[in-house]
From TrEMBL:
Protein name: PglZ domain-containing protein
Organism domain of life: Bacteria
Pfam families according to UniProt: PglZ
Source species: Thiocystis violascens (strain ATCC 17096 / DSM 198 / 6111) (Chromatium violascens)
Amino acid sequence: MTIDLGPVSKTLEAEVRTWVRRNGTVVWLDLDNHYSGFVDRLAARRDAGELPYEVRAFRGSHLALILAPEEVSVGVDRLPLLLHLPGFNEETVRETPLYELYVAGSRYRKALDTLITEAAAGQVTPEQIAAFRTQPETTLEGADVWLAALLDESSNELVTLLRSLQPTAVLDDLLGGGFIAGQLGQPEAESALWEQIRVWTGWPSTWRETALPSVASRARLSAEEVAFAAAAWALCVEYVHDLKRPPVSAVLAGAIDLPPSLTETCRTLATHLRARHPGFYQRCADETEALLAEEVETAKAEDLGRIDTFRFEEDRVLKAAFAALQSSDWMRALEWADLRIGAKSKQPSFWVRDDLARTSAWQLVLAAAQLGQAIAQAGTLGAVGDLVTAISAYTERGAAVDQTHRHLEQRRVALLYPQLPEFESLRSCLDRLRGHWRSWADAWARDFNARCRAHGFLPEAGLQQRHLFDEQVRPLTGESGTTAYFLIDAFRYEMADELYRQLVDTPATTVTLKPCLAELPTCTEVGMNLLAPVATRGRVSPVLSTEGGGGRVLGFTRGEFRVTDPATRQRAIHDRVGGGTCPWLTLDEVVTRDPVSLKRAIAQARLVVVHSQEIDDAGEKGVGPAVFEHVMQKLRAGWRLLRDAGVRRFVLTADHGFLLLDPQAAAVQTHGRRIDPGRRHVFSPAAADHPGEVRVALAELGYEGVAGHLMFPESTALFDTGRPRRGFAHGGNSLQERVIPVLTLVHRAAAGGSAQRYVVWGERREGVAGMHCVAVRIEAAVQCELDFGSPRELELALRVPEAADVQVELCQTRGPARLVGGGVRAQVGAPFELFFRLSGSSDARVLIELYHPGAAADVESGMPEARFAVAAAGMSGTPSLRDPAGTPDVWLERLPEGGVRQLFAHLAQHGVVTESEAASMLGGQRGLRRFSLEFESFAVKVPFAVRIDLIGGVKRYVRD
């Protein structure tokens, strides 16, 4: 026989059941004996087989419980069990024989007032709950009768319908003009709706007048006005319960003590509106914010919580984040940024996610705070200690700072533009971080140079660059198959560390990263030539030139010939490793060759050398931060393509690193005549010491057959050469320049792959804040059978195929995609928007290509038909445009045949087409009118801008 429970008792039983399921044995201390009758009903239900747990109760006899069946005995596994102890609390139960049972279980208590509120919340109004709770001698049985009666008497057809729906569904109905919205003309229905919303959200009886002061007296409100009142209250509740202090606005007083279930309902409504009705949410939030003038005026960033319910919250916190950066409070700035766009945010703040300018600002704050924190964690190097411990300190602590600094500079190039909120404040913060990094780098450089003075400038043999080939590369070539040796100009240690983290989890692969110390001076002529086998018994013979005053290294002598350039390096390497061939390929050649050609090129080789100058070239041109990540993509692609071609072993290393300085604020020091020094070093025949410099004799560097000395700034300063300062520099004796990577990959199995093919689609969208926009989607071309291993996410990049000198800056994404390094990680099948900038030596209009840079899958690139404008960036030279199809008129083929194509060809050649000429080409006035309507769609496909002039009443199409 079923034992019925009232509505309050049902709520209590559901909670008790959850407690018992989670804790096993639950001991219920019921000091005021409110629940004995309820527990007796539970025991009857257990006897009838309606409960999944045992029920035992103290009813005056301790002995009866102690001698009860073994399920209540301590230490026995026959659980779960509810043990009810009326009249006891934590203190009095200690004095009874039941204490052992109490200790063995999980304590449970429930105040009757709290139970009534929780059970009735969301079913009747707060005023009805408050009125019942004031009655004397309230009992659980009385509460059951009260709530059941209220629910019965208020039931009608519409109320029954509303109770069956979720509050979010009712808001959707009101905003979408559904059935409930159509009932608002009927007073009874409208009253029922207002009442039910009050039940769900707990708004005070005066809220209608507060939220809608201008329309509250009207007999009938629109569906959107009712939705606004409900949404505004939900936003107020979310704000109050996210706030870290009590609210100051009287409007919010009713939101403070709501039952948890009503608070959660309001939070759910707010979240739902942000996701499903963003336009309505924005209007509602802004209008509700106007009701909270006291809050807006007094709120501090520290008061606000994790959710930016209102616009003023995000704005207040962003300004506070700038202030935190200025005061070196990195943790606070990092926490605020993380909550809005970073790892701690499940999704971006509503006020940030669709505002690209604010997103950019927060990304810069995040990157800046990460740099400040990295510097604090790295600490100092210390002048005491040897070179080995200095190298270890840099690889363990210092390289992370330089990596974070590079990331910030890359973000700065892509995202810092005048349309950002508080642009000047943000730029000031970033400038200060540059100075903060420079102070840290100067201190480490001085300490490192002090160690070099004390212990010598050359480390132990195992860490010397001149031994790298024979100790790290040559042993790998003794195994069967081909080894790849990547010589990457200016591939800094922290870059290799980033690449290592991306590759370390490659299946069936051993990946190691070790440091090595580049030879001095840290320039290409030294480092690249020493990456070939030129050392004899640990010593090398440099070839010096004295042209230009101070002299420079041209290369090194090895046996009977000099190693000074790629050809002689190739010869030296081939002589040492043997094999039928020793191919020397550029990184571009590797990533652009077809698979058959690549396999053929390495077929007879023990060792293939891959040479890359992109990092150094970009740095010297002043566009390094915009290019660095693209080179990292190409390195991953080159590795993968060579692995697919059969290479099992890889060594990636560098000739030297670099310093990334602020060209406007880089310290400069003089050294004799301006023509004597390079940017970071100078050769001198005399052993003279100068303030702020460090000196080493060439003989101490293991250089034979030459005399003289090398001198360097002891900090990150540049020598005054009389030439414009650049932000990219090398040649000196800082750890950033000298610590180079030796990244080794040994694959134990051949590369596998998926037969699935993908295609990328792109379409031009309206740009924002000086950024271009393209809508992108990756789709599976043809679904293959048994394709279980296909990726659900792919990497994309963007390039300009017809103009190699145009720089691409990826700025933001909107939708299910994210920027990672210099590319985009996008979900297959999920459309998103990509925002970017194009810069070059002069204005142009170019095609873009969306491609997969990593060679991890078979992906067909996408090329939108529209062209995008290139902004002149003041670089020297003229644009080098080439059509990707190889002929200058291929762009015409993208236009409709006939008059349209003829008109634009005439514009390209002559620059002007009058309206009468256009009508003639297009077949008359009807064709001209049709062309005028579609003009914009044609104009975006041509490589020049076209404007329409009206002179003397004559309309003309003019090429800019």
